Amino acid sequence: MIIKTFVEGPIDANNYLIIDEDTNDAVLIDCSDPREEFVKEIKKTGVKLKYILLTHGHFDHILGVDKFKEVFGVDAYISTEDLPQVRTSPEMIKMFTGFSVSGVKTINHFTKDGEEFTFGNSKIKVIATAGHTEGGLCYLIENKLFSGDTLFYQSVGRCDLPGGNLRQIIHSVKDILFKLPDDTEVFPGHGGKTTIGFEKKYNEILNM
Predict the structure, then answer these.
(1) Residues 184, 144 contacting (CB under 8 angstroms)
(2) In this predicted structure, what is the pLDDT of residue 105?
(3) Percent of the chain beyond pLDDT 70?
(4) Adjacent-strand bridge partners of 148
(5) What pTM did the predictor assign?
(6) What angle do CA 128, 111, 64 make, to 5 degrees?
(7) Which one, of 82, 37, 27, lies nearest residue 55 by Cα?
(8) Distance in angstroms (rounded) separating the CA atoms of residues 147 and 185
(9) Cα dihedral 151, 155, 161, 166 sign
(10) Rounded CA separation 168/70 (Å)
(11) Going by fewer Cβ within 10 Å, which terminus of the chain is more open, N or C?
(12) What's the confidence (pLDDT) of residue 98?
């Protein structure tokens, strides 16, 4: 398995291209920007993109979806609970950046807790982790967790935006993610990677 990280979009979100080395099939976790340079970087890898898997519906993780669906002919998946976030993304963009930008036209494929996506000889498991948004999702492949804006290095996702819920994110992190093996590598939606074992000792959520 090969993991390539692309930092894209107006708030520098991590986009992860995960490649099955045996078949060259790949999935893209989050899709933050429609810019041509980002599209070209994915094309240069020569992979067969199978899915776009979205961790949640905030604009800084979904802005490239329409462009990538058009170019690569793939479907994007999100939780149904985060459709309100997708619909209100133009308002959120303006609030955060001051610019008026069109949101995503359509996301009409959905996934939920426990489902699996197969690409090549690899599988990704969906883990529901509400809190940052109503329908936040993480994706687990082998011992690698793609945590979106649920879990960061020594931190967790903010809960003061519409759809956020502090009680839920505490449950999602402490009762779900912290049950994973300590050596699980965490690839967050922003910033550098960490491990479950490290976060169980040093994450700010321990004091919440």
Answers:
(1) yes
(2) 73
(3) 95
(4) 188
(5) 0.94
(6) 100
(7) 82
(8) 10
(9) positive
(10) 35
(11) C
(12) 63
104: pLDDT confidence band, cut at 50, 70 and 90?
Answer: confident
Written as six digits, the tokens of 200 are: 């169980």
Closest to 40 (Cα-Cα) out of 79, 18, 8, 11: 8
pLDDT digit string, tens, across residues 6-59: 999 889 999 999 999 999 999 999 999 999 999 999 999 999 999 999 999 998
Mean pLDDT over 57-82 rounds to 94
Token duo for residue 151: 């879990």
Which residues is 82 bridged to in the sheet? none
Domain assignments of the chain as residue spans, ordered by start: 2-207
Residue 97 clears pLDDT 70, i.e. is over it? no
Burial environment of residue 115 by CB neighbours within 10 A (0 to 12, 13 to 18, 19 or more) = middle
- Please give the single-letter amino acid code of residue 60: D
**Which residue has tokens 């930092």?**
7
Apex 103 CA angle, 85 and 15, nearest 5? 75
| CATH 3.60.15.10 at 2-207, yes or no | yes
Determine the residue type at 71.
V
Q: β-pairing, 144-148 with 137-141?
A: antiparallel
Place of tokens 């169980």: 200
